[in-house]
Amino acid sequence: MIYLNDRFIGREDEINVLESAYMSHAFELVTVSGISGSGKTALIREFCRGRRAVLFTATRTNAHQNLSAFSKAVSKAMYKGLRSLVDFSTLPEAFGFLRKLAEKERLIVAIDRYDDLIGCGPASERALREMLAHDLRGSNMMVILSSSRPLDGIAEGQRDIVLGDLPFQDFRDAFYDSFDDHGLMMLYSLTGGRPEYVRYIDPAKTVEENIDAICLHPDAPLFREPIQRFMSSVRNPDQYLCILSALADGPLQLGEIVERSGVTPSSACSTYLSTLSDLVLVERSAPY
Q1: What span, in angstroms and rounded, lies between the C-alpha atoms of 154 and 114?
Q2: What is the pTM assigned to this prediction?
Q3: What's the count of helices (H) and strands (E) in the chain, helices before strands?
Q4: Looking at residue 109, what DSSP letter applies?
Q5: Mean pLDDT of 15-24
Q6: How far apart, in whole angstroms, are the C-alpha atoms of residue 242 and residue 209?
Q7: At 27, phi and psi to the nearest 5?
Q8: How many angstroms separate the CA atoms of 240 and 188, rounded?
Q9: d(CA 198, CA 213)
Q10: Cβ proximity of 19 and 144 under 8 Å
Q11: What is the pLDDT of residue 288?
Q12: Which of 280, 283, 254, 279 is nearest to 269 (CA)?
């Protein structure tokens, strides 16, 4: 799902899960998980649009700074944009305050990047899990947590949404009036249906112009995406890049790879080559 000319694309099933939880008028916990770029934030914001909701995005800082930011998010949502009317000292205090606010009217509390919040320390995670599993039961609150990994077993009866890439049908429905079927297939193959990439497609441009603007131009958003994804998925990425650079001019034997790449000893180079083979970036072949 993405925003395209103020349109929200796809994710009807996921929206229905959220709508059902909202309409239950009981405490609800909904988790939204998926890899980076799968559209977790967009889904949450689309669902919360026009509803009484606190939207908070955690950051990879510390518990004190996240709590301060959460206080500001509550103030902004509940008091017409003012950002400093409340200042919580603990998470239980914050959620106790929100529980009271929900007594008269349904309240959504959405915490984006939950991984960063609990990464501040085990105390933050324990406190939040205790509230979600016990303290908020019987309240009129709906809590949404987004994470890059599944969040199983936090609270009894929680609802879990796992986001993948957009199916082709949703992609086609969004762009059918701008591109023919061949063009749609090319652009879908280019983006893989990943919302993070789909949002760069410009319906006013041709397929070729979109490919150039998205991938081929040095300033294109996806120009360095493959290498960045690769570097974030392995340890010692510089060693792998040295090996790939050595192989760029053609096939080499192990000894030649060690010599040209400078990756030593040969046993370490062999290990790196094995990983590259598993990632389908290199292939080992025998001449006979």
Answers
A1: 13
A2: 0.77
A3: 14, 7
A4: E
A5: 97
A6: 33
A7: -65, 135
A8: 30
A9: 13
A10: no
A11: 59
A12: 254
Q: Tell me the C-alpha distance between 266 and 255, whole Å.
A: 7
What is residue 206's three-state secondary structure?
A: coil
Q: Residue 38 has which token pair?
A: 């799968």
Where helices occur in 131-265 by DSSP H, the ranges are 168-175, 181-191, 195-198, 207-211, 225-233, 237-247, 254-261
For domain 3-162, which CATH number applies: 3.40.50.1980, 3.40.50.300, 3.40.50.2300, 3.90.1150.10?
A: 3.40.50.300
Q: What is the pLDDT of residue 233?
A: 73
Q: Hey, what's the torsion of the CAs at 137, 12, 109, 100, to 10 degrees?
A: -50
Distance, CA of 158 to CA of 143 (rounded, Å): 10
Cα(88)–Cα(159) distance, integer angstroms: 28
Kind of pairing between the strands at 3-4 and 7-8: antiparallel
Question: What would the DSSP string read from start to end of 228-263?
Answer: HHHHHHSSSHHHHHHHHHHHTTS---HHHHHHHH--
CA 172 to each of CA 10, 167, 185, 280: distance values in angstroms, whole numbers, following the listed order: 10, 9, 9, 30
Nearest to 70 by CA among 115, 109, 29: 109
Residue 3: pLDDT above 50? no
CB burial class (10 A; 0-12, 13-18, 19+) of residue 133?
Answer: middle
Polymer length of the chain: 288
Beta bridge partners of 162: 33
Residue type for position 61: T
Find out whether 171 and 190 touch, Cβ atoms under 8 Å. Answer: no
